[in-house]
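Q: I'm writing a short methods note and want an example of a predicted protein-small molecule complex. Could you take the sequence and the SMILES for zinc ion and return the bound structure as tokens? Please keep the output block clean; save any remarks for afterwards.
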Amino acid sequence: MPPWDFRILLPENQIPTIPVRIPPQTSQGLIMGFFQNIATGLELIAFPNVCVSCGRVMNDRDRMLCGSCTNSKFEDPNPSNKTCCGNWILPEGFLFQDALWRYDKEGIIQEMVRMLKYQGVAKLGRELGQAAGLKLIERHIGNRLPENKGEIILLPVPLHKARQKKRGYNQARLIAEGISEISGIAVADEHVMQRVRNTISQTRFSFSKRMDNLKDAFRLTQPETLSGKFVIIVDDVYTTGSTCFSLGGEIRKAGVKGIGVMTIGIA
Ligand SMILES: [Zn+2]
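A: Understood, no commentary inside the block.
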């Protein structure tokens, strides 16, 4: 089964073909298949896969959030589809800043981001990315972004090599891969933009202190990949925008058509 039940979220004409498992043909194969099915059934009873948000049992063991929670449990930070989720003015070159959900401090979204970043629950990144991908299509494709997906590229906020090695993955890249699966927009290779300074944690910093902390943190190494395109910066949570705006300064050097920001949460 794919990691996501697309039928819940996609219109009927966009439902991808789900691969069908061919049953074993020999009598030995049939018996083996029978016992395997019983084993799978028993496993589901003994260790049910439950939604991390509401606790509902789900048949798809690859998913962590049920369709109902994904679609309607959390607050949409931008229901009227403005260029950004607040009343601020975006810097030059930025076309939009959007997020899947309003961040809930001490709530379930914060817990999911924590699981994704610090508990090694990497598959959650793709799952949340797929939900964000639907929102990106609904609100921005054919509006602030062109219909031609070849003109757009997803750029995950890079992690410093040392931090990525410790974590084993970049959570922003997993989210971008989820967006890509749903939208068909390509994800930029990790060599395109690098984080060359391992900045210290910014959680307690003001906006200006964050910008200082991020000075020269990113380096554009393959401008030709971004040149002439619409670049969507992808990250887990948008707080003050300092990371995106600092990264945007480097992206602009490539001569891009516009920059967008898509995150899972907005604080
Ligand atoms: Zn749920």
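A: Remarks, as requested: The two ends are 34 Å apart (CA to CA). The first strand starts at residue 49 and ends at 50.
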